[in-house]
Amino acid sequence: MSTPDIRVEKGHAEPEEVAAITAILLARAAARPSEPAPAHRGRPRAGWRRLEREGGFRAPHSWR
């Protein structure tokens, strides 16, 4: 006896309902995006300071 690929966790699904959701999932998996995914356009580095990565003493009058 083989195990089913899709299992209903709660309630009762008719075979037609299982077939419909299977068709939707397969169509979504086969669909290719029309455009490539956009490149990451986030900030180049974090907006906060991590003290363990700071370079030791900083003069109180320095900007950096």
In short:
It contains 1 helix and no strands.
Describe the structure.
By secondary structure, the protein is mainly α. The chain has 1 helix and no strands.
**Largest sheet data:** none
Number of strands: 0
Helix percent band: 25-40%
Helix and strand run: H
Quickly list its features.
mainly alpha; 64 residues; 1 helix; elongated
Topology:
Blueprint (H helix, E strand, L loop, with lengths): L14 H16 L34
